[in-house]
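REQUEST FORM: STRUCTURE PREDICTION
Request ID: SP-0412
Submitted by: Lab K.M.
Chain count: 1
Length (residues): 676
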Amino acid sequence: MQLAEFRVQNYKIIEDTGWVPVQNLTTFVGKNESGKSAIFRALSKLNPSDGEGYDGLKEFPRQRYAAEITRTDWPVASGRFILSSDEKRDISAISELCNEVGSVEVTRHYTGTYSITYHPDVGVDLVTPPDLIYSIESAIEQVRNLVAPEGKGDELGRIKEGLLSSLEEHKGAVPVDGQVQKRHIADLINAIKSRANEPWQHDILDPVTEPMYRLVRQMEIFEGLMAANRYIIEHLPKFVYFDQYSVIDSAIHIPTFIATLKSHPDMPGLRATNCLFRHVNLDLDQLDQLGSHKNAVDDNPVIRRQVDERSILLSTASNLMTKKFKDWWGQRRIRFRYDIDGDYFRVWVSDDLDPSEIELEQRSAGLQYFFSFYLIFLVESGDAYQDSILLLDEPGLQLHPTAQQQATRLFERLSHQNQIFFSTHSPFMIDLDNLDRVRTIYEEKDGTTKVSVSEWPADRDSLFPLEAALATRIADQVLSGGKQLVVDDILELWLLQAMNYALQNMGKTGLSPDIRITPAGGTSNLIPLALMMSTHKKPAAVLLSGQNIPSAALDKLPAMNIRYGNGLLLYSSFVNRQGAGIEDLFAPDLYHRCVKDIYPDLPLGQVSENSPADRSEERGVAIQVADLVERRQGEHFDRWRVAELLSDRICESPHNLDEETVDRFSRLFAEINQLV
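STATUS: Completed
RESULT:
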């Protein structure tokens, strides 16, 4: 069966998720306490691999418990499953009603009972005591109206008298509050049939039994449908739920484990350990005897046989886990060895790069997690790989981001055999190429859990992992791109692109077409971004203004092999102003006209009108204008508005640019091309 949709109701903080469509691999994203674990645990108990049922006292919504828990058998988890061709064939053979059925809806309630709906819908009513009573009353009426053939009146009269008495007796014996059994109807049919010995008697009494036969037929159809229901429940996929609490300890003190298991069998930490012993094929009685040989005589044949048998079991289970984990893991070859030393059970691990055995707890947290997860999956699914759905609650939290991305690729591969649903709030486990497989879990204002299917929620906290994943994707594309020119902000990008267009329109050489301009989003980000680019071994140049650059940032540039003439450019190299920015490369009148259009009342006479070649001030023209705007108009200078207008005018009339501006940008682009 393939799970197509699920629904969770009446569980902890969940009132009703609605129907949530799922695929072979589905990611559930949400912040802490949003209800991810509650959804997974409720769904897992639809057919749990660990056998744990619902507990209304602990799991029914607390605020409704006192008033509502006893009102009805509340539904919890529902699943809509698509049947395989073999399953369609099987249920068609079991029940004639299911010949056209292609999918089923299964719901489990707090009592553990199941309800099943078939699609397309099928159904047959259960034969009830009123149905049987009605059939008997109809038979009584028919008997009273029987007419005898000529000459048979007296004989028929005796038959009618005895039959009516028998029917009334059967009617009185119908269990009004009980369930009608097939034998009840069979006894009734026999009571009528036994009155007929001659052909004419059969001819007039057979019609009386027809309603009873219809009830028998109805019961047979109902029994077939019930058998189909049992088939569906027996063939439901096993739901294997796994969370961080199930990670195994590599050194297990056996007496403590046995005592804890007997006193608190539901403790989450015991689950993986119990699966480990089941995998080794050791039960509790055997475990109690594991250390008994310590004080026994060495040549005791009984003890010797127990020790040998135990060693074989451990070796066989170790080899089996090693082989299966390799096929499943698909990375370096990991070897496991199970060992019992007195009262301790240990798991030793080695690999093809380092044959030295190390305790499992000394290996990476990621390996411990996936070993424990796979062990539980292997044991609780009973090796029925295609019959399991894996629910992984926050997998890989201890993993490095690159390892988390590798884990999602592993889940992708495993999902071809088993459906996998995992929850996360890590952006590194979100596949942006398959956003249709992402479901967002969030809290409503009333505190209940909802699942977003067709639209994203308004809750930014819930969406933040998606935003971070998108930012990571963009950053990766930027860092791993081709030749890079890193600038301070997006305004410089606009103006550089505008001047590049203008120069090319004039037939002059602009920026090389394979150079990508990347705004750093501020001077504080520029140096780290350039450093990350250098680690990617991509050609990069850094273009800096001389204003507000921290000296510590400039000190870092030589260590990154970025210095003037070797990856570093300053606007001040092209104008006579130490604090020059990109605006200082333009003719003053062009920039001032744009400022005037944005700030018509600004007295620009206080700003230097000298050409860039004659300027000697340390402050750039944009800084001077900003000071004037704040001082005279008491508002913040919108530098971006002026830059936007300037870039538009450059693109609209590139041939109106003065020669000095064109020359300065030509030299700037030539040096950029040479550097990268």
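NOTES: The first strand starts at residue 2 and ends at 11.
Reviewed by: T.R.
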